Structure formats: structure tokens, C-alpha cells
Amino acid sequence: MDTYRFTQYGSLDYLTRGQEPLPEPGPGQVRVQVMASSLNFRDLLVMKDTLRYPTTPGAVPLSDAAGIIDALGPGVQRFKLGDRVINSFFPNWFGGPAYAGREQYGVEHDGWLTQYKVVSAEALSPMPAHLSFEEAATLPCAALTAWSALAGINAGDTVLTQGAGGVSIFAIQLARAMGACVISSTSSDNKFDKLLQLGADQVFNYKDTPEWSELVRDYTHGEGVNRIVDVGGPVTIAQSIKAIAVGGQVSLIGSLGKSVQSLDVMDLVFSQANYKAIGVGSRSDLEAMNRVISQHRIHPVIDRVFDFKNAHEAYRYLQQRDRFGKIVIHH
Fold this sequence. Notes:
The chain is of the alpha/beta class. The chain contains ten helices and 15 strands. The chain has two domains: 168 residues, Medium-chain alcohol dehydrogenases, catalytic domain (Quinone Oxidoreductase, Chain A, domain 1, Alpha-Beta Complex); 134 residues, NAD(P)-binding Rossmann-like Domain (Rossmann fold, 3-Layer(aba) Sandwich). Helix 3 crosses helix 4 and helix 6 packs parallel to helix 7.
């Protein structure tokens, strides 16, 4: 079978493709014929070795995939041959609260940029039946992060999403499915119509409005939003604090820069809001999300699909900013 590995980290030049023996499943394991995988921003961090987790030399990259069960090890009862599955982002977090020591594909474990992969049956979930393999392969990281960031919202709540990356696009789709109103920000006027078509009720260009919290307050009649999916970290947190409603939650996803806006700690205190770091989610969370995706027939937004032989091109495309939707590799 063909497999990609990073021989070392720091550059895409170290991503190599080679032939390896077909793996056989052991007790409790299954073999997946990988049909599609998808890329996330974190895959660039793994490539550059800047993820803040220790990388494993020679690891297979990518955390997200969909495929078909094509071999069963002894004792497997969760699946049968031919089942269509997706992986959970963390291979050893099945449910319950987050805990230290959760391991990731492409970091501590070989990832999914391969034609066949053996994993524990417990690390997989059935994929939503209405989705293609390419669509389902986008769910384990970005979609589940958006789902976890929105946990606990109610119909009628107002949600603010930032930018038009994978997490933010899924957040719009999921929030609308749960009956929330959505305000979306973007730096590109060209993406206004796309965000509105996805379900955003209001869209604004944050580059044109640096003090965008005032605009958000205007949209919400002075109340602020109930939930913010904050993907900017140090470059957005000060405005998020000013835009969040009393009792609301700022879900902290990541960081788009190193510069820190001037931050008054008392703004944080007087906001009387909650601030929660989001670490993707468990297999149980994934399955709960998939039920909503199936119920509402949500289809992930895909920008472009690359052939397996063109994985390097997929990585290069990921580094471009002028895109909208997920990048997928067809195996």
C-alpha cells in the first residue's frame, strides 16, 4: 500500500510517499480502507513542528479521514465488514470530560494519509449516511471543534463566528440547525454572499471596523451575543470580551497571530461571561454531532478535492488564504 510520512519536520519537502506492507488487525482492531482524508490548519503546524505537542519522527500525517471497514480483528462487535466510518480526532478519548494525555493522529499516532490503516474499533464512528466519503472526512477536527464550541446554546441565542475558515463555516451551519441567529465576520467582501447563503443573518468586515464589538452590540440592541466562536485568540479576544453578553460564553479555539490587543482585565471581570478553551471533542461528542448533521441533512462545504498522488499540492493549497471550505484528498 502507499503511505505518506514526514521523514523530519520543518518543511513540506520532508513529506515522502512510499510502499509499505498491508497491516493486519489484532484483537479489538479493524482495518480501514481509507477513501478520503482532509486537511486542517493544525496540519501546517505539525509540518512546521510548531504544534506545541512533541511530534514523532516518521509519522504519517493528517487527523481526519473516512473509509470502509475491510478487515476485522478478533472480538470486534462495533462494526461489520463494509461499514462506512470516520475516525474520532483523539483515538483514546471516548467520552466524558477532557483529560491530560490525550493523543493525536499525526503526532503521537500515525495519521490517515495512507491507503489502509489499522485502529481500535473504539476509535471509529459510523459516518452520516447522506454524506460522501469526501464530505465525511471533513468532520473529525473542524466540525467537532465547532460543535464543542457551541455546546449548550439554545434556539433564539445569537452566535458570533469569526472569519471563514473550516471551524467558522461549520459553526454557522450547526448554529443555524440548532435555531440560533448568527453574526459572522470576515476580512473579505467577496465572502459576504457565501456566508449569508450558509445561514448567517448579519455579516461584517472586521478590517473595516476594528472596534467591531460596538457593531455587534448594535446588532443585538446593546445586549451582546450569547456565544462567540473565537478563532483569533490574541488578535480578537479584547473585542470578544466587549461583544459577549452577560452570562454568555467565549469559546476559545486557537490563535491567528502573536500580537496581543490591549486587554483590560477588568473588562473580562465585568463582562460576567464564561471563557472556555475548546479541545475538539470526544467520540461521544462526535456521535452526538453526527446525529444533528444527519437530522438536518447538513453538507460540509468543500473548496477543492485533490488526488492522493497530489498530497503535496493539497498542502500548498492549504497555505493560500483565498479559499472557502475544506480541502480534501481522495484516496
